Amino acid sequence: MSEVLFAGAAVALFHSPPPRAQTPPSPLSKTYVDTLIQRAFYNFNEAVSLTNGQEARLMEAISGAKAVCGNLKRKAKGDPNERYILWKVGELENHIILEERDLVLKRMRRGAQKKNNIINAFNAELARGRPDFSKLEGYHTRMVTIDRNKAAELRYSIQQRGRNLSTTITNAMENAVIRGDMASMRSDMAYVTTNDRHLSVPLEKYRRLERKLKARANRERLKAELDERLARASLLTDDDRFAEAWTVIQQLQEKIARARTQLEPRTAYRFDVEIGNLAERINTKEDSLMEVNLRVLREEGPDQAIDYLDKVLRECGVSLLKVARVDSAIIAVAGPQRGIHDDAIERELGELTRHSQTGDFTLESARQLAARKIQQRADSLRAIA
User: Fold this and answer.
1) 282: closest CA among 246, 334, 332?
2) Does residue 352 register a pLDDT over 90?
3) Separation CA 281–CA 234 (nearest Å)
4) What pLDDT, in 10s, does the model give residues 182-217?
5) In Å, how far are 75, 247, 316, 347, 354 from 304, measured between CA atoms?
6) ∠ CA 233-214-230 to the nearest 5 degrees?
7) Which tens digits make up the pLDDT trace of 275-329?
8) Which of 147-156, 168-177, 233-242 is least confident?
9) How far is Cα 339 from Cα 341, in angstroms, rounded to an integer?
10) For labelling, which of 91, 97, 146, 154 has a CA lying 20 to 30 Å from the CA of 63?
C-alpha cells in the first residue's frame, strides 16, 4: 500500500509545472529621477518666494525632499542607473543642508532681533521715574523663552530698581508732605500700593506718611472752610449787612480758636490779619454812616436824623453802641420840650396809619412793628446810659 502512494507522489511530482522565475524590477529611468529631483527643487523655490508663511512652507519642502532622497536611495540598490540616481540624490541632499542652515540662521537672526526689541523696551520702561513693574515682569517672561541667561539679568535689574526706587519714593513722599503737594503725595502712595511686591517701603514709615497725609488733608479742608466763611463775611460787608457780617466773623474766630493747633502758624496768622482788616473795614463803614447821620441831624434836624437812623443805620445792622451815640446826639439837639419817646411813638403811629390805609399790614403786624421799633429805641437809650 505504501509503495502505491509513493509511486503516485512521484508521478505527480514529475508532471507538476516548473516554478515561475521571479521577475526582476524594472530599472528607474533618468527622466523619472530627474522629475522627482526637479519637483523637490521647485518646492524650495516656491517656499522662498512666499511673503507670508515662508518658514512653514520651507519646512514642508525640506521634509518632502528628504522623503524623495530616502525613496530613491532604496530603489537605487542594484539598479543599472544606481550611480546616476545617487549623484542626483547627492545634489538634492546638499541643497537640503543649505536650506536647513539658512533656516537656522534666519531663526537665530529673528530671535536676536526679538531679544533686542525686548531689551530696548525693558530698558526704556526701567529708566522711567515710576516704572510699571507689571510691564517689566512681562518682558522678563518673554525673555525666558528666548534666552534664559539674559532673562536672569533682567530679573536682577528689576530687583535692583525696586530697591533703589523704594528709597527714592519714600524721600519723595516725605518732601511732598513738607511742601504740601497733596497730588504728588497721593500719586506716590497709590504707586506704592500698586507695586508693593517690588517696593520695600517699611510699613511703619508708610503708615506715618499716611497719617501725615490725612492730617494735611484735614488742614486743607479746614482752611477751605475758613476761607469760605471769610469770603462770606466780606460779601456781607460789601452789601452793608454789618450785623450778619459780625456774626460770621464771630463764628470764624471761634472756629479758629478751637482748631488753631491744626493750622500751620503762618495760616493762622494770615486769618488773624485778614479778619482784623475786615473788622476795620466794617468799623470804617459804620463810622461813615454814623457821621452822615450826625450831619443830617445838624443840617436837617432831629426828625430827619431819626428817619435816617431807622432806615439806614438800623437796617444795615450798625452796632448798637454806635446807634446809641446817634440817639444821644438826637436827644441832645431835640431838647426837653419834645420827649424823644413821644416823638418816636407819634412817628411809628403815623407810619402804621399810612400802611393800614394801603392794606399792607394787619392790625397785629402793625402792633408787632411798633413794639419792635420802640424796643430798639429803648435799647439804644439804655446803651447810652
Assistant:
1) 246
2) no
3) 9
4) 778 788 888 888 888 888 777 677 777 778 777 877
5) 138, 30, 17, 11, 18
6) 5
7) 899 999 999 999 999 899 999 988 888 889 888 888 888 988 888 888 888 888 8
8) 168-177
9) 5
10) 146
Nearest one of 313, 317, 305 to 288, comparing CA atoms: 313
What count of other Cβ atoms lies within 10 Å of the Cβ of residue 254?
A: 10
- Using DSSP, state whether 83 is helix, strand or coil: helix
> What is the pLDDT averaged over residues 135-157?
91
Q: Which amino acid is at 31?
A: T
- Cell numbers describing residue 266: 503762618
% the chain with pLDDT above 90:
15
Burial of 273 (0-12, 13-18, 19+ CB in 10 A): exposed
Provide the pLDDT confidence category of residue 53 given band limits of 50, 70 and 90: low
Task: Tell which residue, 181, 272, 179, has the closest CA to residue 226.
Answer: 272
The rounded distance, in Å, linking the Cα atoms of 132 and 126 is 8
For residue 236 the three cell numbers come to 456781607
Residue 198 near residue 162, CB atoms below 8 Å: yes
Residue where the block lists cell 452822615: 292
| Alpha-carbon gap, residue 130 to 168, rounded angstroms | 10
Q: Using CA atoms, how far apart are residues 372 and 172, in angstroms rounded to an integer?
A: 64
For residue 152, pLDDT over 70 is answered with yes
DSSP-derived secondary structure letter, 262: G
